[in-house]
Amino acid sequence: MSDQKIIWTMEIPSHSDFRPKQVDLPEFKFRQLVRPSPEFSWFLHQAVGTDFRWGGRDQWGQPEWEEWVHHPGLETWVAYVGGAPAGYCEMVLEDDGSVRIHHFGLLPSYIGQGLGGYCLSVSVARAWELGANRVWLTTCSHDHPHARSNYLARGFRVVDETTSPANIIRQPVLFTSGPSAAS
């Protein structure tokens, strides 16, 4: 295993570059969380990101998650199949007028069903609705093997490539709201 990862910054610079994908699955819904909770956001991050070594939030507790879900301009969208969470997208309208997709992905049991392209399409369409002057994200070589091709198929292009030390392999962690009752 390499001790380096490749990081790609990707963007869709204009709405005319966007190539959406549709899906016909009656039990599928993609909805915005109107009142996101730290616990549900933590669950989605863990459920989707653990296998792909998502970093940056490993040490977060209740205060950090609470601050994140109330971040100005943050929207969280959740994919549901038959009422069960299947994936999500977190996006932020940035001060420069761009929309950054911070996190995007599917829970493992929903990968390979064509849902990723549709969820990304809905997310990017929402970014344009927010008035984005461009839509962008970063991904890396730890991500699912089809993630980058999904981004490219929707119209994203690579605008920067860097390397950094590889993320450690993550173990699922428990969400804690503070000291345990046994303390």
Q: What name does the CATH topology carry?
A: Aminopeptidase
Identify the CATH class: Alpha Beta
Termini separation: 40 Å
What is the CATH superfamily classification? Gcn5-related N-acetyltransferase (GNAT)
Number of strands: 7
Strand residue percentage: 25-35%
**Shape verdict:** globular
Contiguous low-pLDDT stretches (5 residues minimum) are: 179-183
Task: Identify the strand order in the major beta sheet.
Answer: 2-3-4-5-6-1-7
| CATH level-two architecture | 3-Layer(aba) Sandwich
Describe the structure in your own words:
23% of the residues lie in helices and 30% in strands. With 183 residues, the protein is α+β, with helices and mostly antiparallel strands. It has a single domain (4-165), classed as Gcn5-related N-acetyltransferase (GNAT) (Aminopeptidase), CATH 3.40.630. It has a seven-stranded mixed sheet, sandwiched between helices. Residues 179-183 have low confidence and may be disordered.
Q: Any descriptors?
A:
183 residues; alpha+beta; 7-stranded mixed beta sheet; 4 helices; 23% helix; globular
Helix and strand arrangement:
Elements: E1 4-12, E2 28-32, H1 38-49, H2 62-69, E3 74-81, E4 84-93, E5 99-106, H3 115-129, E6 135-140, H4 147-153, E7 157-165
Parallel strand pairs: 5-6
Antiparallel strand pairs: 1-6, 1-7, 2-3, 3-4, 4-5
Helix pairs in contact: 1-2
Briefly characterize the structure.
A seven-stranded mixed sheet has the order 2-3-4-5-6-1-7, sandwiched between helices.
